[in-house]
């Protein structure tokens, strides 16, 4: 996950939730988002996508 851009990581997070992937996987993505301090991008992405 460290190789993913911030944008791709956020997209992956939303897609994992949409596809109802395992909670463990979603939590791994969420943890990487937290480490990068980019939580604010989660809401920004939703706003952009509509």
From TrEMBL:
<protein>
    <recommendedName>
        <fullName>Sporulation protein</fullName>
    </recommendedName>
</protein>
<dbReference type="InterPro" id="IPR036916">
    <property type="entry name" value="Sda_sf"/>
</dbReference>
<dbReference type="InterPro" id="IPR015064">
    <property type="entry name" value="Sda"/>
</dbReference>
<dbReference type="Pfam" id="PF08970">
    <property type="entry name" value="Sda"/>
</dbReference>
């Amino acid at each position: 996950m460290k190789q993913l851009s911030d944008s791709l990581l956020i997209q992956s997070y939303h897609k994992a939730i949409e596809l109802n992937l395992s909670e463990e996987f979603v939590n791994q993505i969420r943890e990487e988002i937290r480490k990068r301090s980019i939580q604010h991008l989660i809401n920004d992405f939703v706003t952009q996508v509509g």
